[in-house]
Specification:
164 residues; 5 helices
Length: 164
């Protein structure tokens, strides 16, 4: 069951990416502009004397959105592959390949959306995000395994003292 839920999560996230990419340029700008505006208002409240270039920040919000959206995709894909018993380096390489191919398809898709363009730079940002997402998954997996092995060792020591 976990395997199916994992793949459904990947599909739903890919659909969200497709939906966001399918927005015409003006709608997309409004969405990221809303995020930028909230952050700008917060900066004004926290540091009213801070110099803040809203245009540069807006561009950074849009590029970081690529990174974080694909970070989550990378995390979800490697999780689904491992839930499907694709283990070791194969899961990492296959997850990255899936994410890169999806990023390329996504950028080509944007060529057909009014006001949007396909950017190689965005594919590179997406790839970096997916790589970090895969790395975060692996790091969490290592930490969880170490925690479980310590618990098993602790439990076996407790059992040893009870037997004697």
């Amino acid at each position: 069951m976990y395997k199916y839920i994992s793949w459904i999560s990947v599909i739903l996230w890919a659909v969200l990416i497709f939906y966001l990419s399918h927005q015409p340029a003006e709608e997309s700008r409004e969405l990221s502009g809303g995020v930028t505006e909230v952050v700008a208002q917060t900066v004004e409240k926290v540091g009213p004397n801070v110099e803040f270039d809203i245009r540069d920040f807006h561009r950074e919000v849009r590029k970081n959105a690529h990174f974080f959206i694909y970070l989550i995709l990378g995390f979800l894909v490697v999780n689904a592959l491992r839930a499907s018993n694709v283990l070791g380096y194969r899961s990492v390489i296959l997850a990255l390949l899936i994410c890169v191919l999806y990023a390329i398809v996504d950028e080509v898709h944007q060529l057909f959306i009014p006001g949007r363009s396909g950017e190689v730079r965005d594919v590179l940002i997406d790839t970096a995000g997916a790589s970090v997402g895969i790395g975060v998954y692996l790091l969490i997996n290592i930490i969880v395994k170490k925690g479980k092995s310590k618990k098993v060792k602790l439990n076996s020591k407790v059992k040893d003292t009870r037997v004697r």
